[in-house]
Design brief:
Helices cover about 75% and strands about 0% of the residues. By secondary structure, it is mainly α. The N and C termini lie far apart (about 135 Å).
Length: about 100
């Protein structure tokens, strides 16, 4: 048996390139790639600079927090001392005001 033809396949005409069309496309692509790499290098450099700045800021913050903690420790010591003094005065006052003292 012979299959009946139901359609004719028409091939696309071959793409006609300019004499240096492929070279021009390659040059354009390489130029775009060079630009993208340069932009990425600049972005990475800016990111590293930001990390360095952040490291400095965090170091300063850590130092200030340590100072704050020291201040709070000193304040706690003073409050404990004042509390002891207040309790001693309260005990003294209770003793003075106690009946039969």
């Amino acid at each position: 048996m012979h299959a009946a033809r139901t359609a004719d396949i028409i091939p696309f005409p071959p793409r006609r390139m300019a004499e240096n069309g492929q070279n021009d496309r390659l040059a354009t692509a390489l130029t775009a790639l060079d630009i993208a790499v340069a932009e990425q290098r600049a972005a990475v450099a800016a990111w590293r600079e930001s990390l360095t700045e952040l490291r400095g800021v965090m170091g300063g913050l850590g130092a200030r927090l340590a100072d704050y903690q020291d201040s709070l420790t000193q304040l706690g010591t003073k409050v404990d001392s004042l509390n002891s003094d207040a309790r001693a005065m309260e005990d003294w006052a209770d003793a003075v005001l106690a009946p039969g003292a």
